[in-house]
Design brief:
There is one protein chain. The chain has 309 residues and is α/β, with parallel strands linked by helices. The chain has one domain: Alpha/Beta hydrolase fold, catalytic domain (Rossmann fold, 3-Layer(aba) Sandwich). The protein is built from 14 helices and 8 strands. An 8-stranded mixed beta sheet has the order 1-2-4-3-5-6-7-8, sandwiched between helices. The longest helix has 30 residues. The radius of gyration is 20 Å and the shape is globular. The chain starts with a helix and ends with a helix. The mean pLDDT is 94.
Length: 309
């Protein structure tokens, strides 16, 4: 065997071993964090959701990289469940929802899936609460399925196609073959060491909340199959916002927009500009808070979600 062949063989062997270790570690993480909700099978996708309460429905759609516990651990979800029916979904590919590779999971595809789930659950018309990337799905849901949406609450949203470094990085992770290799080898390892810094940036300038620290299953974010969804959503972020932008002025339901004044993930001017474009909108910029409003300003977000109709 030549020296080059030996190097190639060793590289493939190390990659395969690391991939097996990453896969096994991800399965251990799932064993320690089993599903907390129920499942719907819709058009080849398995959708995981959690609900509490009864009455007028409030639907929660989390942002990129996270999962439904980002809302179920929030005061907003608890208040909604005491006053009506609170439903949180794992968006496709996140948590325990599947993300079939045969579909391109744009906000339209995701909104259509959520719409069918709401029909099966008798969950409309609902107040739709979206956070970060979830706001794109929430707005698309209102555009494509207005009969299912009575109002929108949009938190820390990205609405205009501005360049982002993280989108360029995500595009690499979303690539076929190369992205697959990275997601099963080095990316989860790097993510494990950088996760504290990532979460700190998401919450900054506020500290990571105590309940989030204790109860949020953060290692679920590093599973290769969830990373595929995170990179996929991140890579299409600019295109998704660009495609959705022309529809903003046509929205007619009540819309409540909130952002943190110190948000380091999505600048609050996105929310300010959306408020200027949308007729029936109300804007709240919360001083001294960052991206994770549902945890850093729980009282204000809960009051917005639970406002009188």
């Amino acid at each position: 065997m030549s020296e080059l062949s030996s190097v190639i063989f060793l590289t493939v062997l190390v990659t395969a071993v690391l991939a097996l270790l990453v896969y096994a570690a991800a399965k251990v993480v799932e064993y320690r964090n089993p599903p907390i909700g129920k499942f719907l099978e819709i058009d080849g996708a398995r959708l995981h959701y959690f609900e509490l309460g009864s009455g007028a429905p409030v639907v929660f759609l989390h942002g990129n990289a996270t999962l439904l516990q980002d809302f179920t651990l929030s005061e907003a979800f608890a208040v909604a469940a005491t006053q009506g029916r609170a439903i949180a979904f794992d968006r496709p590919g996140f948590g325990y929802s599947s993300r079939p590779a045969v579909r391109h999971w744009t906000p339209s595809e995701q909104a259509d899936l959520i719409a069918e789930a709401l029909r099966r659950l008798n969950g409309g018309p609902a107040e739709i609460v979206g956070h970060s990337w979830g706001t794109l799905v929430a707005v698309t849901l209102a555009e494509r399925h207005p009969a299912l949406v009575r109002s929108l609450v949009l938190l820390s949203g990205y609405y205009y196609p501005m360049p982002r470094v993280d989108a360029a990085v995500a595009a690499i992770g979303a690539m076929p073959v190369i992205g697959d290799v990275l997601r099963y080898t080095v990316t989860p390892v790097i993510g494990l060491f950088t996760l504290p810094v990532t979460l700190a940036a998401m919450f900054a300038p506020s500290p990571v909340s105590d309940r989030f620290q204790r109860e949020f299953p953060r290692l679920m974010m590093l599973r290769p199959w969830q990373l595929r969804a995170s990179f996929g959503d991140g890579a299409m972020m600019r295109q998704a916002a660009a495609a959705l932008q022309p529809s903003y002025r046509a929205l007619r339901m009540p819309i409540f927009i909130a952002a943190g004044s110190e948000d380091r993930i999505v600048a609050p001017w996105h929310s300010e500009r959306l408020h200027q474009e949308v007729q029936a909108s109300h804007l709240k910029i919360i001083p001294g808070t960052g991206h994770m409003l549902q945890h850093s300003a729980p009282d204000q977000v809960a009051a917005t979600v639970a406002r009188p109709e």
